Amino acid sequence: MEITKTLQPGDMGTLNLLDTYGEQLVCVRYRSDEKSQKRYTTVELIVNEKPMQRRTPRYSVLIKIKFEETELRNRVKAAGARWNSQEKAWLMDYRLATKMKLKNRIIRKMIKTDD
Questions:
Q1: Residue 29: burial class (beta carbons within 10 Å; 0-12, 13-18, 19+)
Q2: Residue 113 pLDDT > 60, yes or no?
Q3: Is-contact 6 28, C-beta < 8 A?
Q4: Distance between CA 111 and CA 45 in Å, rounded?
Q5: CA–CA distance, 106 with 21 (Å, rounded to integer)
Q6: How many Å apart are CA 107 and CA 36, to the nearest integer?
Q7: Tens digits of residue pLDDT in 72-104
Q8: 112 and 59 in contact (C-beta within 8 Å)?
Q9: Tens digit of each residue's pLDDT (9 = 90 or more) over 30-62
Q10: Which end of the chain has fewer CB atoms surrounding its CB within 10 Å, N or C?
């Protein structure tokens, strides 16, 4: 099925649907199906509206792991942590660090800016 036309509320071809759906109408699409030789009219509607919740900032933390703790180091690395050579510590998401029960190894918290 291929979209042949998309119309915004108020455009010619949407007035009838605008009367039916009012402010809930987002757009009207015309689709055609070559196989069945049919044309379809579809509507996109707003069905729920609520205020956006502010996202809590995600934190990265630096985790200290001793060189000889190879098993822990491999687990942390497999979970996506990155080695920070300047700090000589592992950088990972705070939530992941708490899930892995590494809170006591946190040496510094930083707000992530790449989200």
A1: middle
A2: no
A3: yes
A4: 37
A5: 54
A6: 64
A7: 999 999 988 999 888 889 998 888 888 889 888
A8: yes
A9: 999 889 999 999 999 999 988 887 766 678 899
A10: C
Kindly give the pairing relationship between strand 106-111 and strand 38-45.
Answer: unpaired
State the alpha helices, DSSP H only, in 1-115: 15-21, 70-78, 94-99
Beta bridge pairs of residue 41: 30
- The span from the CA of 27 to the CA of 44, in Å, is 5
Residue with token string 């729920």: 48
Residue 67: burial class (beta carbons within 10 Å; 0-12, 13-18, 19+): exposed
On whether the CB atoms of residues 103 and 62 are closer than 8 A, the answer is no
| H or E stretch at 39 | strand 38-45
